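User: Okay, second chain of the day. Same drill as before: sequence in, structure tokens out.
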Amino acid sequence: MTIALLGFAALLTLSFLRVPIAFSMIIVGFIGMSWSMNLDGALANVGQTAFDAAINYELSVVPLFVLMGNFVTRARLSEELYTASNAFLGHRKGGLAMATIVACGGFSAVCGSSLATAATMSKVAMPSMRRYGYDDGLAAGAIAAGGTLGILIPPSVLLVIYGILTQTNIGKLFAAGVVPGIVGILFYLLAVRAVITIWPALGPRGDRTDWRGRLLALRDVWGVLTLFVFVMGGIYGGVFSPTEAAGIGAFGAFVFAVARRTMDLRGFYAVLLESAATTAMLFTVLIGALVFANFINFTTFPQTLLDIAANFEDNPWLVLAAILLIYVLLGCVFESLSMILLTVPIFFPLILELGPGFVPPFWHLFTGQMPPMWDLVADVGLGLNATEVAVWFGIVVVVITEISLITPPVGLNVFVLRGVLPDVRTTTIFRGVTAYWIADLFRLTLIVAVPTLSLLLASYVR
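Assistant: Same drill. Structure tokens below.
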């Protein structure tokens, strides 16, 4: 237990010293295994972990979805999405910011990356909002917050990795992300509305588009809808696996880019190079996290946590609240992928152990009595089974990870926008996203308290 805690302390120290998180986890994991076991065993562990990750067939879905997202970006489908959203919302107070959020949600449905969504939409939406006199904070905040939807609305790379780490059906996870993603869009729209109500001058009205213009704008988004329906529909219908769907989606996005004449041979090479670099980064972080997790699992730390959690079996919500608090604190230091890889192997067994106790907390409002726990739950079927807990917890983890993308000091989406918009100060962007991460806290509470939001569509996927 002491060695595990020292390992976490060393990892945090290296992170504060700006050592890349992937190498921090590999270094600490390797030294920890050498100390706990022996040098030969530690070397074998690192080599075998890297080899297993590289040849894992399930992980091949990751580079394919990355490639799909890059082809979609090259096809400039984001411009049509923003135009369509603007046609319906742009004439309202704060309407351009609302249109940006809706467009980000649509782009997320064919991209799967928060950083790519934020970077792409900033080039499309920011000039328009500035032209109408929008406050830089409100405009940049809408882009940064809307970009976080990329890791929740399917296809999502983080949901894929979570599914592989926990052996959870990826199709169910994709289906589970749809409703919380839509709820996220609605909460962000309410956040814009709240800001505009308090400070009306921050988001002036845009031009009104007549219904003919709106229908024409809708006609232009058929490419996004077709790609999303074909890829996701194939997964949900059991026609092909997520890996096959990723390959088909990448090819479909390539066809769109070629048909729109937005990609030549040089552009094709650039897409492949960017996809390879992103995939290499993801796999390096993954290998580092697995090495560190092997070290932690070699100690008594996981079993100690299980023993502690057993004391709260009558109220598993306290354990979940503690885990969520840890995620909030880690979000101030780590980026999203590192958080998922670092924490899920530790926390998932705890949540699975307490699974039957996760009865919908407001059950007594409908039945007139407090919900039964543990054995009684298993008898009457009111609690969540193991599969439902795994899917629901995956959505909860991704949602709280979304919050870390826009909170200081390590809000990756904020720094991506800072690179794309060098004339906008980092403090301005952080000020602009405040309303959105407050909205995210309300959404997280709703998703935790009402598991049905995550499980409704997932229950139809086999």
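The chain is about 75% helix and 0% strand.

User: Thanks, on to the next one.
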